[in-house]
Amino acid sequence: MKKLAILGSTGSVGTQALEVVALFPEKFKVTVLSAGKNAQLLIQQALQFEPAVVILSDEQAYRQVKEALSGKSIEVLYGDDALVESMRRDDIDIALTAVVGSVGLRPTIAAIETGKDIALANKETLVVAGELITQLIEKHQVRLLPVDSEHSAIFQCLVGEEQNPIEKIILTASGGPFRGKGRHDLENVGKAQALKHPNWNMGAKITIDSATLMNKGLEVIEAKWLFDLDAKQVDVVIHPQSVVHSMVQFQDGSVKAQMGVPDMKLPIQYALSYPGRFVNDFKRLDFMEYPTLTFEKPDMEVFRNLKLAYQALEAGGNSPCVLNAANEVVVEAFLNDQVGFLAMSDIIEETLCQLEFKNNLSLPDYLHYDQESRRVARSLIDRIVK
Questions:
Q1: pLDDT tens digits for 275-322?
Q2: What is the DSSP string of 62-73?
């Protein structure tokens, strides 16, 4: 039985992970759950799965959960430091990191340093500090198992191909709700339109990232570190049906693809069950429901975030960290109706220009540039708001 910590248990990936866990009570035991401020859902999860510890990042939610669980033998903790320390517990075999944003970096490092395998749904961890994380993974000899459907697809295609070099990988993208639109079409779109993803049911932040193609840009950077590639070895194609989850091209020209219905539970289950595959009753792919599969080139002049991500990857150093932090700030501002859809890319680009470039970073460096990038991005937003 694998003992699990699920960080971000009340989010889209976290809730689906617990659905998977509930299907296999003889295979998994949840020992740690963490959430932001969704107290009611976390209380329900805690009562159902009876973890040893739950951690919240919102103080009011913490008080609510602590009171609700006062008669249970479940420890209730508050704050980022408590989350980091909880990852050092002995009763964790694998940590599923499904929190949103760079807040996942420190607890992921703590888990790696104490010998836990990582099921990674928090792509920002590798975007911000990919070099550091991969060094720690190698040093502590733990496994980094991708949960994103695209990276899980690549990972599955590579099983049994350890001796065969990758020529390139092809990440697929749905194109989001604005596929095929021009810049003039996007000048006045609001959050209600941007949050209508055609294929996937996700949280607000990742849905906006999908609409701007920043999500795919972050995945490009993540893929570099997961699979030891350079920017020229990572292609992106728009695939509106979201059936081909991604592909690998080998040096002989052969291409492998992993396919399935758009359902995050499958890559979640594979990461948790690896190297095995558990029998389930998830919906199977019926090709008659998808008689046509199409592929298009992404428009990086309209969706500039994807181009900015490639540029940050090629620059290296602190550039991906700056890109990610600025993006988190502008997405929040867009959701709060403070900036327009197209302005998000402008602010990210200006933030990258204003921050000094630095290479060979330590953890304090990454945390410093994360905060500095947020400060600069917010100041740029304040100018627009005023």
A1: 999 999 999 999 999 999 999 999 999 999 999 999 999 999 999 999
A2: HHHHHHHTTTSS
Strand arrangement, sheet containing 2-7? 75-78, 53-56, 28-35, 2-7, 94-97, 117-120, 144-146
**CB burial class (10 A; 0-12, 13-18, 19+) of residue 103?**
buried
pLDDT digits (tens, 9 = 90+) for 323-374: 999 999 999 999 999 999 999 999 999 999 999 999 999 999 999 999 999 9
Residue with tokens 């963490």: 34
- Residues ≥6 apart with Cβ < 8 Å to 92: 3, 4, 5, 31, 32, 111, 116
pTM of the model: 0.93
Reference 227, options 288, 145, 303; nearest CA is 145
Token digits for 61? 């939610």
Token look-up 């109706």 returns 337
Taking the CA atoms of the chain, what radius of gyration do you get in angstroms?
Answer: 20
